[in-house]
Design a protein that fits this description.
Chain A is α/β, with parallel strands linked by helices. Chain A has 12 helices and 14 strands. The radius of gyration of chain A is 20 Å and the shape is globular. In chain B, strands 9, 12, 16, 17, 18 and 19 form a 6-stranded mixed beta sheet that branches. Chain B folds into 3 domains: 2-117, RNA polymerase II/Efflux pump adaptor protein, barrel-sandwich hybrid domain (OB fold (Dihydrolipoamide Acetyltransferase, E2P)); 130-179 and 198-220, E3-binding domain (Dihydrolipoamide Transferase, Irregular), CATH 4.10.320; 222-421, Chloramphenicol acetyltransferase-like domain (Chloramphenicol Acetyltransferase), CATH 3.30.559.
Chain lengths: 330, 422, 332
């Protein structure tokens, strides 16, 4: 069945709503408007305003309400329009969703799913282009998932809803239009564990979300040069799949980590540190990182392109690990 | 000003050493050349010397501690102008000048290592650490590849896994396929840190060290071989005459003649006395022949007799006796292990006529002497019974040619034949 | 302050139970203060003393099936709600027998049994949660009410606004219980709020709201019953402003530079326990002997709780990382 990432997410929501009457979708413009990215288009008509619940512009309020509803026995899907707006809900996500189970000594778990769009590349400037998955991946008590493929977009939501604890799904804005084939009866997909998207022997391109496709493209370029790149799609940023990360590095001895987020203190730093801790003696070169340039994302197309990781950057980083360069790979 | 006294590098393959004992204690004054302690290495226990007059302030590494090369062992309080220099600056000055005239000073402890890393008399800057990727370093140990000999192809010229594996393949040909991801090292797990190595371990470690050096030699050095047999009658007669007048402990050893003959000859043929590194030959400033000494229970070492060309036969005899005894008891000094500029091997009187040696890299020559045997020997048309010895030369064809080699060998023989001039 | 006349005394046994409940909170917290100085209780300790009528009266008007969301000054709510003094005290000690296994401490009391959802130490942080609990009840078609406690300080927070708007917009069964004790920590109401008539502000969200004498437990209970009845009947959220006063400093480490002793003394004249006891004496349902017996009973309960806490155990450090994610058996 030909479909898009957007439709895959929508199907996942539809299916979840049919399967479990405790599930409902709540967020800004999810109902009458059809979703900012048209993910929930048509669902209001199907499920009604109670379960496809438009909220006021009150990120903290409705995210907290999602937490409360989860405590009260529901299985809410809270859509925060983009990660940029989730900062208004940070108190609820960090101080409540991630914390209540522990603070209550296990008495109250929060089976909440938060979906948010993330990433840049659409010339919507600094306040609408953030990639702060790494921030959330810092918080114990949360599960952070970044479905990149159609299968994952379709199958991870259900697994996230089945998890007894809060799960945040990050959907990259550039993926919504991605087309592909998906089986009619696509099943659930685990929200744990990374996946090798391309096998290779010389260098591991470790990434998630949109980065997976940039890495796959880079691997094609590298293949023409005789370099065999493996592409690891992390899929889950918390917990990180240490086993898969170390496995691929032990195989190729070289790693390039790709993240649209910034380098300093980013998830790329964490991955790099784990590689160094866990596979130091398997490394044939220092881990390299291709990250967002440390600048608020600018509006002009050429500057934005320069600010985000691009295929040539990945190719260059990989080459730098493979051949004798003049000096350290920055 | 205090400064660290660091674990010396006593050879190219040495990465660390375990402190066995200290001969000094805090507060004690030490003089340049004093043996301050004993360190266990793959090659055995080695006495380590101090390089300056100083006072020991603190013992940093207690006996039993395994310390990487370059890490502090002691804290010293220096004196004089040295105090104004930072320890690292001072070390690098010393380390960076082994090939210059100043290297007559005893600051030669790292001559093998530094000859690899800092061939030129560089400004005051520490010699860069060899850039080796972690996996390459691990694999090199497994495959017994000498990293120092490799050209790095990785980022910043780092030696990579592929460099190590291709080097190993090029030599051994029997190594496994390059992709050995996830494999454990084949055998000989590293020794637990605090465990003092037993004789068995030490023996294995020594075999390993020999294997590393000899493999590298045979892989890298294009040897050529020359042999020259000659009568020792005259020499031996002279020797017994000289020794008749001496008490047993003072009798000259034949080996001292051999040593002196080589040492004198090599001054005239400097291309056999030095090191091949970084693609070129670097003559050694002094003549420090290493004497191959086989150890009881197996293995061998080839410690240097310093400045053999300038020492009398008496001094050399004394030196050889001392060296053999200390080599066999595991108490060699660091400089003795590290300094040889050419190696001499002798099979003594065990009956084999000819020995062709394997050069100890980065040296460029090894002179061998077989057993003294009785043979019919013609001199001036007359055949008689002579005690004959076969002298051999294995030399690095990159540094010298056969013609010079044969002249060199002949010169040694001549010196040997005229012991009174030695 | 002018409030409607205090409601009549309820039947003696209920009056006794209200008095006992307030007295338990008072004596329990006095003990806590003492234990704090002995370092048995650490961290922050915010005492409720003076405000006992609010928790006691309002929670008396709730049903078991209702939910409670409280603040970091929640010992009174927890005890009034029926969380055992023993597990509350053990929680204060940090023992694993505590109502949150010792993981929360004084500010984070939780109890599933009584639907007591904490113990939230972010001012206004509990409000969206309460809205969500009410949303769940609403969607499940259950007539549970969620009582949400917060202080006057919370009304300056954005989350207050968001939550009031959401609850009113969706007509959710939330009872907003504002405990106006006149100070947000050390910042007086008039220093922090442009409109100090808090109930008036609440009405702007289109929900019924009115002030209540928070020192009169009978007035508190009466007002809450009225509000809860309306909320439960589908009347949407209600807002009660309980005007009250804390007699003790904000926390144990507070020199009280922001208010006068006279002011405190003035308020103490309206001590909620004394007020109720006097009315009971006047009505002839309490005498000295009765009061002494009550005190003795409460003292025993407090002593019991301390003993329970003392005898409690520390959770093994090996369990440190539990409850970050649900244990498998917690998962449904």
């Amino acid at each position: 069945m030909k479909t898009t990432y957007r439709e895959a997410v929508r199907e996942a929501i539809r299916e979840a709503m049919h399967r479990d009457e405790r599930v409902f979708l709540m967020g800004e413009d999810v109902g009458r408007y059809g979703g900012c990215y048209a993910v929930s288009k048509g669902l209001l008509e199907e499920f009604g305003p109670e379960r496809i619940r438009d909220t006021p512009l009150a990120e903290s309020g409705f995210t907290g309400a999602g937490i409360g509803a989860a405590l009260g026995g529901m299985r809410p899907i809270v859509e925060i329009m983009t990660v940029n707006f989730s900062f208004l809900a940070l108190d609820q996500i960090v101080n409540n969703a991630a914390t209540l189970l522990h603070m209550s000594g296990g008495a109250f778990n929060v089976p909440l799913v938060i979906r948010m769009a993330t990433g840049g590349g659409r010339q919507v400037a600094a306040q609408h282009s953030r990639s702060l998955e790494g921030w959330y991946a810092h918080i114990p008590g949360l599960r952070i998932v970044a479905p990149a493929t159609l299968d994952d977009a379709r199958g991870m939501l259900w697994s996230a809803l089945e998890d007894p604890d809060p799960v945040i799904l990050f959907e990259h804005v550039l993926l919504y239009n991605m087309e592909g084939e998906l089986p009619e009866q696509a099943g659930p997909v685990s929200i744990e564990g990374a996946a090798v998207r391309r096998e290779g022997t010389d260098v591991s391109l470790i990434t998630f979300g949109i980065g997976v496709f940039k890495a796959l493209e880079a691997a094609e370029v590298l293949a023409e040069e005789g370099v065999s790149a493996e592409v690891l799609d992390l899929r889950s940023l918390r917990p990180l799949d240490d086993r898969a990360i170390l496995e691929t590095v032990r195989k190729t001895h070289r790693a390039v980590i790709i993240d649209e987020g910034w380098r300093s203190g980013g998830i790329s730093a964490e991955i790099s540190a784990r590689i160094t801790e866990g596979a130091f003696y398997d490394l044939d070169a220092p881990p390299a990182r291709v990250c967002g340039v440390e600048v608020p994302t600018p509006y002009p197309e050429h500057l934005e392109r320069a600010a985000l990781p691009q295929v040539p950057d990945i190719v260059e980083a990989a080459r730098g690990l493979l051949s004798g360069g003049e000096g350290d790979v920055a | 000003m205090s400064k660290p006294y660091r674990m010396p590098s006593l050879g190219a393959g040495m990465e660390d050493g375990t402190v066995i004992e200290w001969h000094v204690e805090p507060g004690q004054r030490v003089r340049r050349g004093d043996v301050v302690g004993v360190v266990d290495t793959e090659k055995g226990a080695i006495e380590i010397e101090i390089w300056e007059d100083a006072e020991v302030l603190e013992i940093v590494a207690d006996p039993g501690t395994k310390v990487p090369v370059g890490e502090p062992l002691l804290v010293l309080a220096g004196q004089g102008d040295d105090d104004d220099r930072s320890p690292s600056a001072q070390e690098s000055v010393e380390a960076a000048t082994p090939g210059s005239a100043e290297a007559e000073s005893p600051a030669l402890e790292d001559v093998w290592d530094e000859s690899e890393a800092a061939p030129e008399a560089a400004p005051v800057e520490a010699a860069p650490r060899l850039r080796v990727s972690p996996v390459a370093r691990r694999r090199a140990r497994e495959l017994r590849v000498e990293l120092e000999s490799l050209e790095g192809s990785g980022p910043g010229g780092a030696i990579t896994l592929a460099d190590v594996e291709s080097a190993a393949r090029g030599e051994a040909g029997e190594e496994e396929a390059p992709d050995s991801a996830g494999q454990e090292p084949p055998s000989s797990p590293p020794r637990p840190k605090d465990e003092e190595p037993g004789d068995k371990d030490r023996h294995a470690a020594m075999r390993k060290a020999i294997a590393v050096a000899m493999t590298r030699s045979k892989r890298e050095i294009p040897h050529y071989y020359l042999a020259h047999a000659f009568s020792l009658e005259r020499t031996l007669r002279w020797l017994s005459r000289v020794n008749e007048e001496r008490r047993p402990a003072e009798r000259l050893l034949l080996a001292s003649l051999y040593l002196k003959a080589v040492a004198k000859s090599v001054r005239e043929f400097p291309e056999f006395n030095g090191f091949w590194d970084d693609g070129g030959f670097r003559p050694a400033p002094g003549v420090h022949p290493g004497m191959a000494i086989s150890l009881r229970g197996g293995g061998l070492v080839a410690p240097a007799i310093h400045d053999a060309d300038q020492r009398s036969l008496e001094e050399l005899t004394k030196g050889i006796r001392d060296l053999v005894q200390r080599a066999r008891s595991g108490h060699l000094r660091g400089s003795e292990v590290a300094d040889p500029t050419i190696t001499l091997t002798s099979l003594g009187d065990r009956g084999v006529e000819t020995v062709f040696g394997v050069i100890y890299p980065p040296q460029v020559a090894i002179v061998g002497v077989g057993s003294v045997v009785e043979r019919p020997w013609a001199v001036g048309g007359m055949v008689g019974s002579h005690r004959v010895v076969t002298l051999t030369l294995a030399a690095d064809h990159r540094a010298s040619d056969g013609h010079r080699g044969s002249l060199f060998l002949d010169r040694i023989a001549r010196h040997f034949e005229t012991p009174e001039d030695l | 302050m002018t409030f409607p006349p205090s409601p009549p005394l309820p039947d003696p046994s209920h009056a006794h139970s209200l008095l006992r409940s307030m007295l338990l909170v008072r004596r329990f917290e006095e003990k806590c203060a003492e234990l704090y100085t002995e370092q048995k209780i650490r961290g922050f300790l915010h005492l409720y003393i003076g405000e006992e009528a609010v928790a006691t009266g309002s929670i008396a008007a709730l049903e078991r099936r209702d939910s409670v969301v409280a603040t970091y000054r929640e010992h009174g709510q927890a005890l009034a709600r029926g969380v055992p003094a023993t597990t509350v005290m053990a929680e204060m000690f940090g023992k694993q027998e505590g109502c949150a296994r010792g993981r929360g401490g004084s500010m984070h009391l939780f109890d599933a049994e009584t639907r007591f959802y904490g113990g939230n130490a972010i001012v206004a942080g509990g409000l969206p949660l309460a809205v969500g609990l009410a949303l769940a009840a609403h969607m499940q078609g259950e007539d549970r009410v969620t009582a949400c406690y917060f202080g006057d300080g919370a009304m300056a927070e954005g989350e207050f606004h968001e939550s009031m708007n959401l609850a009113a917009l969706w007509n959710l069964p939330v009872l907003f219980c504002c405990e106006n004790n006149l100070y947000a920590m050390g910042t007086a109401l008039e220093v922090a709020q442009a409109e100090t008539d808090l109930a008036l502000r609440a009405t702007s969200y289109g929900m019924p709201a009115w002030p209540v004498d928070g020192m009169d437990v009978l007035a508190v209970e009466h007002a809450t019953r009225r509000a809860v009845q309306s909320v439960r009947a589908g009347g949407g959220p209600h807002f009660l402003e309980f005007r009250t006063y804390r007699f003790r400093p904000h926390s144990m480490f507070d020199p009280e530079l922001y208010r006068s002793r006279d002011e405190v003394a003035e308020w103490k004249k309206r001590d909620p326990i004394v007020l109720l006891a006097n009315r009971m004496r006047e009505a002839g349902i309490l005498d000295d002997a009765g009061m002494d017996a009550l005190e003795a009973e409460v003292a025993e309960e407090v002593d019991n709780s301390v003993r329970f806490a003392e005898e409690g155990s520390w959770e093994p450090v090996e369990e440190l990382t539990r409850f970050v994610h649900s244990d498998p058996e917690v998962a449904e």
